[in-house]
């Protein structure tokens, strides 16, 4: 939103804008657990709560998720805590009023969410897709917040198709023929030399 000239397409996975809204009791409870662990300096407790909230989701225990994936995500979460739980950590400035500004997005958008993700995250992704003209939403069955990690082949297939279609549309839109038969560059608004 802040630098639209740099963006040709958007892909989001389990997310909306940087201004999420949470109402679901299970999600709020997980956030309370994470906050409590953070306040207590309990890195292991924070990571476990994070894995439960995002990797497992509200509909299955963490033990039902592939153990290699749990291990990998545990390591990733630990590295995130190490990198960002410091007084010298860089905190980005977030865009403001993002939900009202969805109409500003004029590039193709693919929104992917797992059907086992929290109700709030599924709603956020659905609202994002509904707010962007022409957006495509895909729900991956059997995945929670990280369908890209739980189902990488299926995720990559959807992503590749989206990117291929986006490139084809962009190529077709970048040049067209006017009534005189001249090729006109749509982006530049003039005939190429």
The biggest beta sheet is recorded as: 3 strands, parallel
In the sheet with the most strands, the strands line up as 1-2-3
- Based on helices, strands and strand pairing, what is the structural class? mainly alpha
> What would you say the CATH architecture of the largest domain is?
3-Layer(aba) Sandwich
Averaged pLDDT, please? 89
> Please, what is the CATH homologous superfamily of the largest domain?
Alpha/Beta hydrolase fold, catalytic domain
What's this model, at a glance?
By secondary structure, the chain is mainly α.
Can you give a write-up of this model?
By secondary structure, this protein is mostly helical. The chain folds into two domains: 7-18 and 108-174, 3-Layer(aba) Sandwich (Rossmann fold); 25-83, no CATH class. It has helices spanning 25-39, 43-56, 67-84, 119-131, 147-150, 152-174; strands at residues 10-13, 109-114, 136-140, 175-177, 183-185. The strands form two sheets. Strands 1-2-3 form a three-stranded parallel sheet, sandwiched between helices. It is globular. The relative contact order is 0.16.
Task: Describe the SSE topology.
Elements: E1 10-13, H1 25-39, H2 43-56, H3 67-84, E2 109-114, H4 119-131, E3 136-140, H5 147-150, H6 152-174, E4 175-177, E5 183-185
Parallel strand pairs: 1-2, 2-3
Antiparallel strand pairs: 4-5
Helix pairs in contact: 1-2, 2-3
Relevant terms:
Rossmann fold; mainly alpha; 3-stranded parallel β-sheet; two-stranded antiparallel sheet; disordered C terminus
């Amino acid at each position: 939103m802040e630098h639209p000239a740099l963006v040709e397409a958007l892909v989001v996975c389990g997310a909306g804008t940087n201004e999420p809204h949470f109402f679901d009791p299970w999600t709020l409870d997980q956030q309370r657990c994470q906050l409590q662990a953070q306040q207590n300096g309990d890195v292991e407790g924070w990571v476990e709560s994070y894995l439960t909230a995002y990797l497992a989701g509200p509909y299955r225990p963490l033990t039902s998720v592939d153990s290699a994936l749990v291990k990998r995500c545990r390591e990733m979460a630990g590295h995130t805590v190490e990198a960002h739980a410091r007084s010298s950590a860089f905190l980005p400035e977030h865009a403001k009023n993002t939900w009202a500004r969805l109409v500003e997005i004029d590039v193709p958008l693919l929104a992917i969410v797992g059907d086992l993700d929290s109700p709030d995250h599924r709603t956020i992704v659905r609202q994002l897709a509904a707010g962007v003209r022409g957006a495509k939403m895909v729900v991956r069955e059997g995945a929670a917040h990280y369908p890209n990690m739980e189902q990488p082949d299926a995720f990559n297939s959807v992503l590749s198709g989206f990117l291929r279609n986006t490139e084809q549309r962009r190529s077709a839109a970048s040049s067209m023929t006017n009534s005189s038969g001249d090729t006109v560059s749509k982006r530049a608004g003039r005939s190429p030399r």
